[in-house]
Amino acid sequence: MKKLFINGEWLEGAKVTTTRSPSDLSDVVGEYASAGTAEVEMAIAAASNAAESWRYSNVQQRADILDKIGTEINERKNELGTLLAREEGKTLPEAIGEVGRAAAIFKFFAQEALRIRGDKLASVRPGLDVDVTREPVGTVGIIAPWNFPIAIPAWKVAPALAYGNTVLLKPADLVPGCSWEMAEIISRSGLPAGVFNLVSGPGRVVGEAMVNDRRVDAISFTGSVGTGTRVLAGCAARRAKVQLEMGGKNPLVVLADSDLNVAVNAAIQGAFYSTGQRCTASSRLIVEEGIYHAFVAAMKDKLAQIKVGHALYAGIDIGPVADQSQLEQDLRYIDIAKNEGATLAFGGDLLKRETEGYFLSPALFTDCHPDMVHAREEIFGPVASVIPAKNYEHALQLANDTEFGLTAGICTTSLKHATHFKRHARAGMVMVNVPTAGVDYHVPFGGTKGSSYGAREQGSAAVEFFTTMKTSYTFAG
């Protein structure tokens, strides 16, 4: 059994969680300790007690530790990628790529630890010097989702440590394995006891304790809108700093002047790869009428070539759905779309493979109206809706007609339309002639409206959440 990591020690939990591969339900991935209230209390106390000394730690020490963590993750990316594919269901190439991204994130923030900037300003009053500096927030609770089991924990943990914060990491119950392996690497990196703590367990025990405890100075959360709303309310009640990344119902606009091959590849990659289980997935394909029928025909041809199967098998394009509850949600929305009058142009079927798993063929719906439930609510699966648009202006209106605003894409050969869309799309990230899913590790990540709340994640923008600013005056005489 894999234990909890609290105050520099490996400890047993109140319960044990057993995880199985969604590609093969007979494949037991591992047994992981699950924290109860006593273990959570120990972890919060440890992180809180370590915060003062880590706050004043040497930046070179932080940089060296983070670089060491990134190096080992990268050296073991095939091994860790195999684990990720087993526990979450991403295809092996995607899983190895995600591990490589996690390694790069740690190495990026190793250097950011050396670049914590401040300002020296002239005062309007004679004889005074003004310094503006950044300081750690303190103790940060991190609540990670299941769809990126190592990349998202990495892009939260690495900047938290780089900027001098102590960490409480709660991975998703569905996929604790990658976080455990990352914690094991961190445990040998030279961090002082209590600076990093792995506290696996259910949200109602671990997550709620972190959100409600005044010793936890900030919460960084990625997950569902419903849970994020409760996290926000809990943090607001005690005025804790909070950062939320939640849902998306992202549009990909395809104009009649676009390169059809480019548009289809962007749509297939964005909507269906990673089994559509990405908050940046383009589940709304808004297509100009002049190219609508050609686009749908090309999509069906391309989807017919897609191979769905065991995440570890060679040649597989799309792995299984992550678990039974997510599969049931996908199937429920497929039924909703049919009942709303949308046409199932391709897929949406349960598939039998050599192993027992949660295999679903990618579903493409046409004849969709923007007010249909399946075209408005986040499904988080391999389901996409094709919505016709009269022209560019209509397409932009449809793209912005959503409560979410994470990412938006457009396929066009018109510089005029591309430039206008980048300016007027109501989203935190905009893609032109590339899939909506896929953001570099060194640039800001986040959205608008109901998708995000608080400071951006990733890149140099991460400093905004993980630090606070202090203004100091000195009388120079």
TrEMBL record:
InterPro entries per the UniProt record, alphabetical: Ald_DH/histidinol_DH (IPR016161), Ald_DH_C (IPR016163), Ald_DH_CS_CYS (IPR016160), Ald_DH_CS_GLU (IPR029510), Ald_DH_N (IPR016162), Aldehyde_DH_dom (IPR015590)
Catalytic residues (UniProt): E245
Keywords: Oxidoreductase
Domain Aldehyde dehydrogenase: 17-471
Transmembrane helix found in the keyword field: no
Entry annotated with the keyword Oxidoreductase: yes
Gene3D superfamilies documented for this protein: Aldehyde Dehydrogenase, Chain A, domain 1, Aldehyde Dehydrogenase, Chain A, domain 2
PROSITE patterns referenced in this protein's UniProt entry, alphabetically: ALDEHYDE_DEHYDR_CYS, ALDEHYDE_DEHYDR_GLU
GO molecular function, a single term: oxidoreductase activity, acting on the aldehyde or oxo group of donors, NAD or NADP as acceptor
Family recorded in the similarity comment: Belongs to the aldehyde dehydrogenase family.
Protein name per the record: Aldehyde dehydrogenase family protein
